[in-house]
Specification:
With about 300 residues, the chain is an alpha/beta fold. The protein has two domains: about 210 residues, Spore Coat Polysaccharide Biosynthesis Protein SpsA, Chain A (Alpha-Beta Complex), CATH 3.90.550.10; about 80 residues, no CATH class. About 45% of the residues lie in helices and about 20% in strands. The protein has 14 helices and nine strands. Strands 1, 2, 3, 4, 5, 6, 7, 8 and 9 form a nine-stranded mixed β-sheet that branches. Helix 2 links the parallel strand 1 and strand 2. The longest helix is centred in the middle third of the chain and has 12 residues. The chain is globular, with a radius of gyration of 19 Å.
């Protein structure tokens, strides 16, 4: 028989669920949250501009769960997630898209990873597997360097795999720009400057790719369009904003600070030279070449 003390010791995780006109995929996502082992969950559900029919559908799926519902006035996943983040009171916070599947041990594993980071802002994330047309494909994260220098070029902290602790939440919310497009990238940049990032090679999420994905579409043309439509989501903007808000101690200690400042210079020529010089020191993938090109061409 389970004692009351053992029940009380089960950690509660705030799960932020952001939706906009959710499709049938959300049923599997919510079921996978409800099926998490070893933790209790409180679901913070934020919806932007869905039909009442869609919202009623999600309410039916959440029936029996501990959840609260919010109407989000501003479009975009970042605005949704940051609003929900501001409402949480739990020690651990996870971020849920509306169309993935979490494996049963995801939250418990991540809580265990963050247990020893109570005194500092902490973030943990994992590998994921791709779910394409019902078939699972292995997807291994190539970026495991969590220094700020590395993260400004390539975000390896995939949003649906992330969990942060309460000090991480407080740091992120303490100075939040209004124009952030990619919430997961911003959170990773902030935690890299003020706390600790922990990576698990285990695949804890099935990340679904489909035609409605905002970022995950494996199509070069769509990526270019996404970058061009959201100039303030470019990494140079997020980099310079993170440094201006959180990077004072980092700047004084980092010998590469001059190079980083050159990479975010208003001058395209200086950014181009700095990007080429930095590129010689690392392996550059196609995605990163695209990001660097757009960074140099069109820094807000």
């Amino acid at each position: 028989m389970t004692s009351q003390s053992s029940i009380d010791s089960v950690p509660t995780v705030a799960v932020l669920l952001a939706t906009h006109q959710p499709k049938s995929y959300i049923e599997e996502q919510i079921q996978s949250i409800q099926a998490q082992n070893g933790v209790k969950t409180k679901i913070y559900w934020g919806d932007h501009a869905s039909s009442e029919e869609s919202r009623a559908y999600v309410r039916r799926l959440l029936a029996g769960s501990d959840f609260v519902e919010y109407s989000i006035p501003h479009p975009g996943p970042a605005a949704n997630f940051f609003y929900l983040l501001s409402k949480t009171t739990e020690k651990f916070i996870a971020f849920s898209d509306q169309d993935d599947i979490w494996l049963p041990e995801k939250l418990l594993s991540q809580v265990s990873s963050l247990q020893n980071s109570d005194d500092r802002p902490g973030l943990t994330h994992s590998n994921s597997q791709l779910l394409i047309n019902g078939k699972i494909r292995t997807k291994k994260i190539l970026c495991t360097d969590h220094t700020f220098n590395s993260l400004i070029f390539s975000n390896c902290c995939q949003g649906c795999t992330i969990m942060i602790n309460e000090k991480g939440r407080d740091a992120v919310l303490s100075s939040l720009p209004i124009d952030i497009v990619w919430h997961d990238w911003w959170i990773a940049l902030v935690i890299s400057l003020v706390g600790d990032i922990i990576f698990s090679e285990k695949s804890e999420v099935l990340y679904r790719l489909h035609s409605s994905n905002l970022v995950g579409i494996p199509n070069f043309f769509h990526r270019v369009v996404n970058f061009q439509k959201n100039p303030k989501g470019l990494m140079s903007y997020q980099c310079s904003e993170a440094l201006s808000r959180f990077g004072l101690a980092y700047a004084s200690e980092n010998p590469d600070m001059k190079a980083i400042l050159n990479l975010t210079s208003p001058s395209r020529y200086i950014r181009f030279r700095a990007s080429i010089k930095d590129g010689r020191r690392r392996i550059i993938l196609a995605d990163e070449i695209l990001r660097r090109f757009l960074w140099v061409l069109r820094r807000p």
